[in-house]
Request: fold
Amino acid sequence: MKHSVILNVFLISMIMYFPVYIRFTGSTVINCPNIAFLDTTTRIACSTSVNFTTTIYTCPCGSEQHCSQSGCVNQSTLGFNASIVNRTQTELTIPRAQPRHTGNWACSDRQTDGKSFCNLVLTKIPSVTITSDVDADSVNLEDRVSLIVDIEDYYCSGPFSLTLQVGSEIYKPVSGRNNANRNLTTTTHINVTQTHFGDVKLVFVCDKHLWNITPEGVHELQPNSRPEAGQRQGGTSGAADGVPEITGADDGSAPEGENTQGGVTVQQLVPHVD
Reply:
């Protein structure tokens, strides 16, 4: 009993003279937008479960942005800057998002364990013009029609596809990945059937997002309503039948949900799994 009392007194003395410091660690979470647009302002947020000490953003380009409770050290040459929202959250702003900003961003803090990552995907919706070698408002069944599709200034830092839809017919898309603004002109030949009559549009998919784009020029294929509609007119006969396609490149993934962006219907898709 006497030894037990002595031991307890010794332990209490040790704690009093040699305090034990316990570090309470927390977690860090970084959030990128679902998708952002090239040349526009983009924001990324980083939050901690405890008050942060020094939060560090790491850009895919290799640059870092530091924030402490006293403020953030901003450098104009980085192309982005950070600010403090509250004691557990900071926000990084990219005034004009560029291809070098795409990819995996990281956030860490000295008060928490590990890093948190998010993927920034940038896109730019193309402008589309479609012309035809015949009068698209007066087309006969079995006519051979050529549609010239001019796609300008499209961009996607993730997987993308461009698909032409004529009526209920879908044409083989251009797909792949790209890291530069691109222009594309293609010619699609079709042998007109009843299923080709209706809207003509281009479907642009970037990552898991989809835009139905109504083009300038030809945006509808209409049947000939004149008495001689049964005769073939304006088309070119004798061409081989087959599945028409847009000539393009590479592989890509097509990626549920719906919202709008700039008056254009946007759908979020689930990537296909082969």
